[in-house]
Amino acid sequence: MDLYPLWNSLRIAAISCFFVFFLGIFAAYYIMRIPRVLKGVLDVILTLPMVLPPTVCGYFLLLLFGNRRPLGIFLAQFSLKFVMTWYGGVLAAAVVAFPLMYRTARGAFESFDETLAYSGQTLGLGNAFIFWRIRMPACRQGIMAGTVLAFARALGEYGATSMLVGYTPGRTATISTTVYNLWRTNNEADAFWWVMVNMAISTLVLVVVNMMEQRNKKAGLA
Amino acid sequence: MSLSVDIHKNLGSFSLDMVFESGGGILGLLGASGSGKSMTLMSIAGIAKPDRGRIVLDGVTLFDSEHRINLPPQRRKVGYLFQNYALFPNMTVRQNILSGLRRERDKMKREQAFNDIIAMAQLNGLERHKPSQLSGGQQQRVALARILVGKPALLMLDEPFSALDSLLSRHLQSQMQLLLKEFGKSVIIVTHEHSEAYRLCDELALADDGKVIAIKGAKALFSDPESRQAALFTGCENVIDAARAGAFKIDVPQWGVRLFAAMPAREELCAVGVRAHCFHPDIAHNRFPVCFTGDIEEPFEHILQFRYKNQPPGSPDLWWRVPKSNRSIKLPAELGVDPASVMPLYR
What we know:
With 222 residues, chain A is mainly α. Chain A has helices spanning 4-31, 36-51, 54-65, 70-76, 86-110, 114-122, 127-138, 140-155, 159-164, 175-184, 188-218. Helix content of chain A is 77%, strand content 0%. The N and C termini of chain A lie far apart (43 Å). Chain B has 347 residues and is α+β, with helices and mostly antiparallel strands. Chain B is elongated, with a radius of gyration of 24 Å. At the A-B interface, α6 and α7 of A face β7 of B.
């Protein structure tokens, strides 16, 4: 059994989740501070990938990064090719998972008691300190939930990934594209094996999340 | 030690136009909720930005719209005790207090300042506790210690006792008085409770609808509020339209009486105020026949409602506060008021 799809899926999910974590948090943080009209427009754009079919996201990604598109040609000069590469999978997964992180983080930030930040400022604390040591810990629950959701979504990404990077065994194959291709080629036994792998990972993620929540409750921090 | 505030801000439904000065000591900002007290504090702290105006603290310009000066809150040296204390929930008492000391680089000095403030605020033994494990009074002391340890030039307290029950609040107020004396710099206390303001403050500024309508010594404001609003804010129960009838004479048509005042009544007089505890059957001045119409029983006093014999129908009843121990069984037929307790009002 070739375990490449497992390794590739985990790698894509982890790396895209890393980027989405920071991008989502900063987008959520700064979007609360801009004028209302611009905020509404940006909010719609940033949330769209969540409600669009992933294939449509993949279509837009191809429009942008396709080998004969301006941006694709430009990036090719730096040997950066997103079409049919494993890191193209990172891009696809990140785009689709981003809104989950962004929206959950924003919800957490919006319920943050702003007087904590104010009092930090009047105490002479720098804005970076206030953000990382006061705001983030207070919003920890929401941020964690958003990260897990984004990771799970990135792990299960199929539509945009198959549009942008397709299915090349040993190169771009992920668990979800592998399941589809094995099924399509009547290799039902192997498809079932990969379905079980996917189930195991997802269950593990959920169990870990629940355990973290329990621990927080016990510590009286929930 | 001086603070000069002159700020204007349009807040849609109402506009803030706060102009006042303080020469140090404890200034009380007294007013109903929504009168712009908290917004004023936030402007002084640099959290909210006024549309225009000037704020100068001890000769340092914190904000000046004309010269485009707007110091960030971190550089204003203004301590701000929030209504909910705003303790950082993820940090221990020690970490919370040390967060007010992060500019002190010398570790020895930081430890020393920390130990001093812990002793002063009586927080020994609580250093490792999280804010959620503390009582309301302890939380307030931690918040105050966290501010004072950074040696601010001005301390602002926003409704410091509103989150506590009344007995605890009284205890803490006397503790607070000692702490503030030791602090020795300018203090602003925002409150809507007139007795709290009287107890804690040297000087009082009355805020109403975004403006300061009166500012003077606490004792002077209570004995001579000068305006109708000020009389009501300082808890005067009997305030009514009146007209000047002579140098020391005031006509009160709705009570059907003419009162003598110890203070001369100026031409513009438009109302008069008499506090409910100032009536007494044994006072010979301003003594008129009365009849009683009601009784509100409080734990330690009665609030008796009465009308003067000549009072026209439709006019409001008067209130008389009598301590329970002093209340004679028989209601008196006449009540008098010392002329010094008759307060002429002008707006």
